[in-house]
TrEMBL record:
<dbReference type="InterPro" id="IPR003439">
    <property type="entry name" value="ABC_transporter-like_ATP-bd"/>
</dbReference>
<protein>
    <submittedName>
        <fullName>ABC transporter ATP-binding protein</fullName>
    </submittedName>
</protein>
<dbReference type="InterPro" id="IPR017871">
    <property type="entry name" value="ABC_transporter-like_CS"/>
</dbReference>
<dbReference type="GO" id="GO:0005524">
    <property type="term" value="F:ATP binding"/>
</dbReference>
<dbReference type="InterPro" id="IPR003593">
    <property type="entry name" value="AAA+_ATPase"/>
</dbReference>
<dbReference type="InterPro" id="IPR027417">
    <property type="entry name" value="P-loop_NTPase"/>
</dbReference>
<dbReference type="Pfam" id="PF00005">
    <property type="entry name" value="ABC_tran"/>
</dbReference>
<dbReference type="GO" id="GO:0015697">
    <property type="term" value="P:quaternary ammonium group transport"/>
</dbReference>
<keyword id="KW-0813">Transport</keyword>
<feature type="domain" description="ABC transporter">
    <location>
        <begin position="2"/>
        <end position="237"/>
    </location>
</feature>
<keyword id="KW-0067">ATP-binding</keyword>
<keyword id="KW-0547">Nucleotide-binding</keyword>
<comment type="similarity">
    <text>Belongs to the ABC transporter superfamily.</text>
</comment>
<dbReference type="GO" id="GO:0016887">
    <property type="term" value="F:ATP hydrolysis activity"/>
</dbReference>
């Protein structure tokens, strides 16, 4: 873990960038630092790899003060993605990515193989290795920055607004790729962003910094949204915190309600009984594989059991979020959403009460 104990950074002109910071970042977790511009996020990162030295307090990694070892040794274990990518402009993309492996004295073959592998990992084309940074878009440069930081497979990654230069759609894709990568690599990551939605999506924990480099709150995304500690944090979290919480919870987190199910060809009495048990005036029809065929009002079905069912589209997969479930709920004519498995088989009904209970 990375442990800040009463860390203060005062620059020579008197600016206090970080003020008495106590923060413990767990190994293998992704901790996000968020907060308004100038609140000390970059400075906090730069103190971890000693590009800035703390003026007071200590930073320890796995219990060892970072000043105990030579700075080169410290940095070998830390990948750093700089704000605005920070690539060497006169070196090719390949040479940029190869920087640390070469410093470590890897042989040529191993370096070349690693460069190829990383270009692929961050979703760029292999022939881009020969280009120079100015021949790439801002978002592509940021990916190269990520590849360069990953090159020697360091256990710790410091990432300063790595996806800031890309549009929201590409950013969402990069975030997805990054989450998948992190699930595989399990690195200790300190990730800076301005974007609270990005923080909520990516972070295992979020440290919200306030003006003057003070920590306003440190919590999991769900805790932060459920119980913000101050008006400052509330403002920073922005509109619709409950919707944001729903987007963090999987459909599987919500309890299902009694479902009035009938099979094709059920009798009117069977339909009435299923509806009575679930306290509804409608039934869902499923086939032999429990796939939803549609729904009937019980009264209509009783009058004509041969009628075709109404279509039912309010369906979510087990891997969807409760926010998707809410989206399906508002267009559902029955006020319920059906959860289905990967093969489309019925797995339970959710109502507004299910979402309410999941949040409370
Ligand atoms: N070398 C320096 N000398 C004096 N003040 C500095 C120096 N570097 C940073 N600062 C000041 O320290 C404060 C924190 O800066 P820092 O770069 O850590 O902010 P940040 O949270 O990363 O902001 P942003 O979101 O804009 O990147 C700011 O007020 C900044 O002006
Ligand atoms: Mg910054």
């Amino acid at each position: 873990m990375i442990e800040f104990s009463s860390v203060t950074k005062r620059f020579p002109d008197g600016t206090v960038a970080v003020d008495a910071l106590d923060l413990t970042l767990a190994t293998g977790e992704l901790t996000v630092l968020v907060g308004p511009s100038g609140c000390g996020k970059t400075t906090s990162l730069r103190m971890i790899n000693r590009l800035d030295e703390a003026s007071a307090g200590t930073i320890a990694i796995d219990g060892v003060d970072i000043r105990q070892h030579p700075v080169t040794e410290l940095r070998r274990g830390i990948g750093y993605v700089m704000q605005h990518s920070g690539l060497f402009p006169h070196r090719t993309i390949g040479d940029n990515i190869a920087t640390v492996p070469r410093l470590l004295g890897w042989d040529k073959k191993r370096v070349a193989a690693r460069v190829d592998e990383l270009i692929e990992t961050v979703g760029l084309e292999r022939d881009m290795a020969k280009r120079y940074p100015h021949q790439l878009s801002g978002g592509q440069q940021q990916r190269v920055g990520v590849a360069r930081a990953l090159a020697a497979d360091p256990p710790i990654m410091l990432m300063d607004e790595p996806f800031a230069a890309v549009d929201p759609i590409v950013r969402k894709r990069l975030q997805d790729e990054f989450l998948a990568l992190q699930a595989r690599l399990g690195k200790t990551i300190v990730f800076v962003t301005h974007d609270i939605d990005e923080a909520i999506r990516l972070g295992d924990r979020i440290a919200v910094f306030g003006e003057g480099g003070r920590l306003a709150q440190f919590a999991t995304p769900n805790e932060l949204l459920a119980a913000p500690k101050s008006d400052f944090v509330v403002d920073f979290l922005g509109a619709e915190p409950q919707l944001k919480r729903l987007s963090l919870l999987p459909v599987s987190a919500a309890a299902t309600i009694e479902a009035p199910l009938i099979a094709t060809g059920a009798t009117a009495a069977e339909a009435t009984s299923a509806a009575d048990t679930a306290a509804t005036d409608w039934v869902l029809v499923v086939d032999g594989e429990r796939r939803i065929l549609g729904w009937h009002r019980v009264a209509d079905y009783a009058a004509d059991t041969a009628r075709a069912p109404e279509s039912f589209d309010a369906v979510v997969g087990a891997g969807d979020t409760l926010r998707a479930a809410l989206g399906a709920l508002v267009i559902s004519p029955l006020g319920v959403v059906a959860r289905v498995d990967a093969d489309g088989r019925f797995g339970g009904l959710l109502a507004q009460s299910s979402l309410h209970r999941a949040l409370s």
